[in-house]
C-alpha cells in the first residue's frame, strides 16, 4: 500500500524561511530577484528562460513532456534556443511589440515555446483552450482584431478564416504545409538560435485571456509583465517551488491557471515543468506522477474527485513517493477530497483561490499553515481581503457577503480589452475594493469560506462558463425559441451545464432532437460547455419589464424539483 509513514522530506518551506506569520509584507521586497531591478530591462520571457542559462543552469531540464507513447525533454538552454528561433520567425513575418499572437495548440512543449517566443518580441499572447470550436475561436480573435495565430493542422479546421478578417498570418507547427500558411517549425529549423529580446515596460501587455461573466460575450482580460512579481513569489511561497522540484500543473494554458502556473511561475522559479499531452485517465496521470517523479502537483477538485472515484487499488499500483506538496484551484475543494489525500498519500491538499482577473493567487493555504477543510485558506502575505455587504460596508466574521480584495496588487489585470465599463464594474464601491463576484465569509481566524457566486456564472470541473455564450449558441438552432442556461450541482464536476429550452412550433422534444442540439453546441463552441442536461419547457420565467430570462428562478425550480 502507498501509505506514507514519514513526513515528506522537503526540509523547511520557502515561506517559513523568509516570512514570519503576521509580519507585514511589501511586494517591493521581491523586485531585486529580477534582472530588471539592476538593468531596467523588462521581459517575462527573459526572466523565465534566458536568465537561468546566463546563471549557469542551461543543462537543467526545463520541460519534460509525456504522452502514453512519447517522452521528450528540453533543457533551459534548448528551450532558449528554440524560443529564439521561433521568435526570429515571428519577427521575420512582421510580428512586433503590442501585436496579439493567438496560440491554439494542444498541451505540448510547442505551446510553451510559441507563447515565450511571442512574449520575447514584446507581443501579447492569447492562448486558446484546446477544446474550443469554431465560434469560440472566432469570437475571441475577432474581439481584439488578432493578426497572428500559431496553431497546428489538426486544429486548423476550427479556424474559419473567412469570418476572421483581421487574421494576417497563420503559423502552423506542422513541418509540411500546403498553401500560404507559414510552417513555423520548418522556418525555425533554419533560423538563428540567438535573438534579441524586445525590452518592454512593466506595465506593457503580456497576455490576454478571454473569460466569461454572466452577461455578454467573453471579455478580454489583459495582463502586464509586472505580473511576474506575484507569479514568481506565489510559485515560491504557495507552490513552494525549490531548485530540485519536478512540478506538474495539469491545466491547459488556454485557462489562466495553465498559463500562470503551468508556464510562467515554474519557469520563473527555474524548476522542471511536466507537460502531459494525453487525455485524462487515472492510470495515465498516476503514471506521469511516477515516471516524472513529480514532487509538486497543482490540479483541480474535479480531477481529484475522479481519481478518488477510481479507488485505492489503482493508486496503490504506483510509486508516488516523490510527491511532497499538492495544491488545488478553480472550484470548491470538498473536505472529503482532503481526507482522501491524507489517507492515501499522507499529504494535505492545499486549496488556492484566484481568478483570471487577479492574475495570481490571492487566498491560499500556505504549506506552513493549518488547513481548515472547507476553507480556501487565508490571504497570502501582501494581500488583504474583506467581506462586504450590498452597500460596500465591511461585514464581521461569520457573515456572508461579497468577497473583496484591497486594491491593488502586482498581478491585477491591466485592462479589459476595449471595455473600461467592464473594468470599472469590478470596483462598484470605489477603487479601494476589488469585488470578485464570489460570495464568502471569513471566520474568526481570517480563513475564507467560499459560498458560491453572486452572479449566474457556471463552474464545471473548475472551468468558468458564461451562460450567455451557451445561450447565444443554443438560440441559433432552428428548433430553439427561447433558452435559459444554469449550473446544476453535480457530485463530481461541481456543476454541470443545464439548459431549459422552449421550442419553436413544429418541433418535439424527442431525444434525437435534444442530442442534435447538444451536438450543435459541442461542435460550435466547445464540448465542455455543451449542456449535459436539456429540459424542454413551455415557457421560460422572465422579468416583467425587460423580458430577460430569469436564470435564478430556473435554478430555484430545478433545486426544488430535485428535492
Ligand atoms: O468562483 C471562483 C472560482 O473560480 C472563479 C474564477 O474562475 P477563473 O477566472 O476561470 O479562474 C479559475 C482559476 C484561477 C472564482 O471567481 N474559484 C477559483 N478558485 C476557487 C474557486 N471556487 C472555490 N474554491 C476555489 N479555490
Description:
There is one protein chain. The chain has 563 residues and is an alpha/beta fold. The protein contains 18 helices and 26 strands. Strands 2-1-11-10-12-13-14-15-16 form a nine-stranded mixed beta sheet, with helices on both faces. A five-stranded parallel beta sheet has the order 4-3-5-6-7. Strands 17-18-20-21 form a four-stranded antiparallel beta sheet, with no helix packed on it. Helix 5 (109-120) links the parallel strand 3 (100-104) and strand 4 (124-127). Helix 3 runs parallel beside helix 10. The longest helix is centred in the first third of the chain and has 17 residues, at 76-92. Residues 1-9 have low confidence and may be disordered. The site of adenosine-5'-monophosphate-propyl ester has 21 residues, from helix 10, strand 14, strand 20 and strand 21. Its EC number is 6.2.1.1. This is acetate--CoA ligase. Residues 469-544 form the AMP-binding enzyme C-terminal domain.
Amino acid at each position: 500500500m502507498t501509505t506514507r509513514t514519514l513526513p515528506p522530506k522537503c526540509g523547511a518551506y520557502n515561506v517559513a524561511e523568509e516570512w514570519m506569520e503576521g509580519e507585514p509584507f511589501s511586494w517591493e521586497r521581491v523586485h531585486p530577484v529580477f534582472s530588471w531591478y539592476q538593468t531596467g530591462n523588462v521581459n517575462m520571457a527573459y526572466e523565465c528562460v534566458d536568465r537561468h542559462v546566463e546563471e549557469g543552469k542551461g543543462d537543467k531540464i526545463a520541460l519534460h513532456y509525456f504522452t502514453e507513447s512519447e517522452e521528450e525533454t528540453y533543457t533551459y538552454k534548448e528551450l532558449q534556443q528554440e524560443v529564439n528561433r521561433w521568435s526570429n520567425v515571428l519577427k521575420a513575418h512582421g510580428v512586433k511589440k503590442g501585436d496579439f499572437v493567438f496560440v491554439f495548440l494542444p498541451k505540448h512543449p510547442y505551446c510553451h515555446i510559441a507563447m515565450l517566443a511571442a512574449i520575447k518580441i514584446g507581443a501579447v499572447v492569447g492562448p486558446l483552450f484546446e477544446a474550443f470550436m469554431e465560434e469560440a475561436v472566432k469570437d475571441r480573435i475577432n474581439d481584439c482584431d488578432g493578426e497572428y495565430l500559431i496553431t497546428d493542422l489538426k486544429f486548423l479546421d476550427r479556424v474559419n478564416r473567412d469570418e476572421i478578417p483581421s487574421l494576417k498570418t497563420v503559423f502552423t507547427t506542422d513541418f509540411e504545409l500546403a498553401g500560404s500558411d507559414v510552417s513555423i517549425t520548418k522556418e525555425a529549423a533554419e533560423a538563428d538560435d540567438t535573438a534579441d529580446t524586445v525590452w518592454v515596460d512593466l506595465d506593457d501587455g503580456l497576455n490576454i485571456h478571454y473569460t466569461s461573466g454572466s452577461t455578454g460575450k467573453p471579455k478580454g482580460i489583459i495582463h502586464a509583465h509586472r505580473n511576474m512579481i506575484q507569479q514568481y513569489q506565489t510559485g515560491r511561497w504557495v507552490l513552494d517551488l525549490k531548485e530540485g522540484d519536478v512540478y506538474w500543473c495539469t491545466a491547459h494554458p488556454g485557462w489562466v491557471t495553465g498559463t500562470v502556473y503551468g508556464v510562467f511561475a515554474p519557469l520563473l522559479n527555474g524548476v522542471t515543468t511536466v507537460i502531459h499531452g494525453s487525455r485524462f485517465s487515472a492510470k495515465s496521470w498516476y503514471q506521469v506522477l511516477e515516471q516524472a517523479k513529480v514532487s509538486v502537483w497543482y490540479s483541480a477538485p474535479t480531477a481529484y474527485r475522479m481519481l478518488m472515484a477510481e479507488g485505492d487499488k489503482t493508486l496503490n499500483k504506483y510509486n508516488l513517493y516523490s510527491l511532497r506538496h499538492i495544491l488545488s484551484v478553480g472550484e470548491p475543494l470538498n473536505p472529503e477530497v482532503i481526507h482522501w489525500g491524507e489517507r492515501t498519500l499522507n499529504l494535505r491538499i492545499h486549496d488556492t483561490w484566484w481568478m483570471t482577473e487577479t492574475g495570481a493567487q490571492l487566498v491560499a493555504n500556505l504549506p506552513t499553515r493549518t488547513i481548515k477543510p472547507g476553507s480556501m485558506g487565508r490571504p497570502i502575505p501582501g494581500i488583504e481581503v474583506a467581506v462586504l455587504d450590498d452597500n460596500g460596508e465591511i461585514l464581521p466574521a461569520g457573515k456572508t457577503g461579497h468577497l473583496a480584495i484591497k486594491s491593488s496588487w502586482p498581478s491585477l489585470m491591466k485592462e479589459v480589452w476595449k471595455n473600461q465599463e467592464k473594468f470599472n464594474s469590478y470596483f462598484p464601491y470605489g477603487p479601494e475594493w476589488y469585488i470578485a463576484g464570489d460570495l464568502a465569509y471569513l471566520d474568526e481566524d481570517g480563513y475564507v469560506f467560499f459560498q458560491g457566486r453572486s452572479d449566474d456564472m457556471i463552474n464545471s470541473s473548475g472551468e468558468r462558463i458564461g451562460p450567455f455564450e451557451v445561450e447565444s449558441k443554443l438560440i441559433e438552432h432552428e428548433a430553439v425559441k427561447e433558452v435559459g442556461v444554469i449550473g446544476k450541482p453535480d457530485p463530481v464536476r461541481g456543476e454541470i451545464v443545464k439548459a431549459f429550452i422552449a421550442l419553436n412550433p413544429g418541433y418535439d422534444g424527442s431525444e434525437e432532437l435534444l442530442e442534435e442540439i447538444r451536438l450543435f453546441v459541442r461542435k460550435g463552441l466547445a464540448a465542455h460547455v455543451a449542456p449535459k442536461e436539456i429540459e424542454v419547457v413551455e415557457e421560460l420565467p422572465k422579468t416583467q419589464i425587460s423580458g430577460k430570462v430569469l436564470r435564478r428562478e430556473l435554478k430555484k425550480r430545478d433545486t426544488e424539483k430535485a428535492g
